[in-house]
Amino acid sequence: MTTQDDPTAGDAVPDGDGGRTVHRRPGRKPDPGRDAEILDAALQVLAEVGYAGMTMNAVAARAKAGKGTFYRRWPSKAELVLDAVGHMKRRQARLDALPDTGTLRGDILALFKPASVEEGEYQLTIMAGLASMLSQDRGLAEAANDAIVEPWAAANRVLLGRAVSRGEIDASADVETLSQIIPSIAAYRALIQRKPFDRDFLISIIDGVLLPAVRPSPA
């Protein structure tokens, strides 16, 4: 008897780790809850062994998932890593739970959730693994931007839009560009400088860069 995760059923695909060929056949539609478990497992393995040492087999074992599940969803390790990092960022910047303090400054500060020392180190290790992947294939830069920057930019677009509606910032403000300032700097700080993005640094960007750029022009 075969199941949707049975590697002996259906079409043949490479296992992605340089090993034997696995076989699969179309199964049920992806389960979002199961996908989240697999992506969390991918983050854990990436943090533990880095991108070079990470294998699909190790993630499958950690998530207790069959290889068929992987190859219906993630044909390559790079795609799995990008999805996992995007999953982590979307969980941090939840669009369904954005703060509404009445001011743009207050909203952005409330959106920031300080991490514990352990969590901060864990996230930096994940970003180091992502940086290693990008150094091997710079063609993934746009996809990496979508995973790292876009979840936070999406949240900032909402907050900036509210500020425009309140008359707090200039209606002519380039919301699209402004929404990317903080997450882009955060990505650079994590990927290149290997430094955490803490509250004090966030305040310096809000007060020194973002707010001066969006203040209404004098009549």
Report on the structure:
This protein is mainly α and 219 residues long. The chain has 10 helices and 2 strands; from the N terminus they run E-E-H-H-H-H-H-H-H-H-H-H. It has helices spanning 32-53, 56-63, 67-73, 77-92, 104-111, 117-136, 141-148, 150-166, 175-191, 199-214; strands at 11-14, 21-24. Strands 1-2 form a two-stranded antiparallel ribbon. The longest helix is centred in the N-terminal third of the chain and has 22 residues, at 32-53. It is elongated, with a radius of gyration of 20 Å. The model is unreliable at 1-28 (pLDDT under 50).
Amount of helix:
55-70%
Low-confidence runs (pLDDT<50, min 5 residues)? Answer: 1-28
What amount of the residues lies in strands? under 5%
How is the biggest beta sheet arranged?
A: 2 strands, antiparallel
Shape: elongated
Distance between the termini: 76 Å
Category by helix and strand content: mainly alpha
Computed CA radius of gyration, to the nearest angstrom: 20 Å
The overall strand count is 2
Summed over residues and divided by their number, the pLDDT gives a mean of: 83
Instruction: Report strand order across the widest sheet.
Output: 1-2
The oligomeric status of these chains comes to single chain
Strand/helix succession: EEHHHHHHHHHH
Number of discrete helical segments = 10
